[in-house]
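Hello forum,

I keep getting stuck at the same step: I have a sequence, I want structure tokens, and every attempt I make locally crashes halfway through. Rather than fight my setup again tonight, could one of you with a working pipeline run this one for me? It's a single chain of 113 residues.
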Amino acid sequence: MLKQPEVSDNREEALIKVPTEQAPETEEQLSELEAKVWCALDGNQIAVVTFRGQQRSLSGAMAIAPQWNVSQLDADQEERLQPCVQQRLSQLAASSAQQERERPVMDYLFTQL
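Reply #2:
Ran it on my machine without issues. Output:
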């Protein structure tokens, strides 16, 4: 059973910088990192990463491994995170597909108004 997540009131502790050498290079890698951050960290923790020259903030939510600092996970953490990460990637893919389906409709609506 997982322990109760610990919430940090210190904003410095809540900000985690992803080292440049660990920064994602592709959209797929960014999605994987976003899913891992969402699953591992709590809602008060944010991972900051530079992707293609722009700084992005990725928010935590599930607090499965809130002590994670975007370095390597141990085997136990990885095992607990994997189902959540897979589910989150599925949600992100479905959300992206839904947006692609809605885009022509929204373009039409806004050009006709």
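Residues 1-8 have pLDDT under 50 and may be disordered. If your local run keeps crashing, start a new thread with the error log.
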